[in-house]
Amino acid sequence: MQAIFCALAVVLRDVQRAFAGREIAPRRRATRQESCALDEATPDGILNLEHHQLELCYADLRVRRTGLEARLLASLERDGQQLPVVAVPAPSGRYRVIDGYKRIRALRRLGVDVVRTVVWGMSDGDALLLARGLRTAPAETALEQGWLLSQLRRLGLSAAELARRLSRNASWVSRRLALVDVPKNL
Is domain 22-137 annotated with CATH 3.30.565.10? Predict the structure, then answer.
């Protein structure tokens, strides 16, 4: 738990640095020269990554809400990407996205080649739990909670560990998992 709080402090520091005294810049595409140096971090510690550098393996953990995505698309078109997506390093050398799937879909629709990304140096499971704790978007549905718990189980966390880390009881975890763990023979 202490590691998560330390990571949270680092993330908050990075966010403060990223937005301290910054004015909103108009959206623009990366130049060819910038594209050649995409793996280099910006002064605020945020990486500019191309879409092919991102692994989107947790996209199915949230319900798509077309109204919210339409508003986000309009905002990104008007103001550009203000908040970076969150990723962790993947064994493939790419980056596995933890949070920011709506932003990525909207950036693709707008034809923006570069995604501003902050990289957390932790496991997928720890990052998914931390991102859930930091989430300010509308509350998760029970089904989304079940998807997240199921994914965390596949990453090796026990039901008891999930209950402890989410400050819930074992029954809550079991009920959420039952929503998504449907027998194959049905």
Answer: no
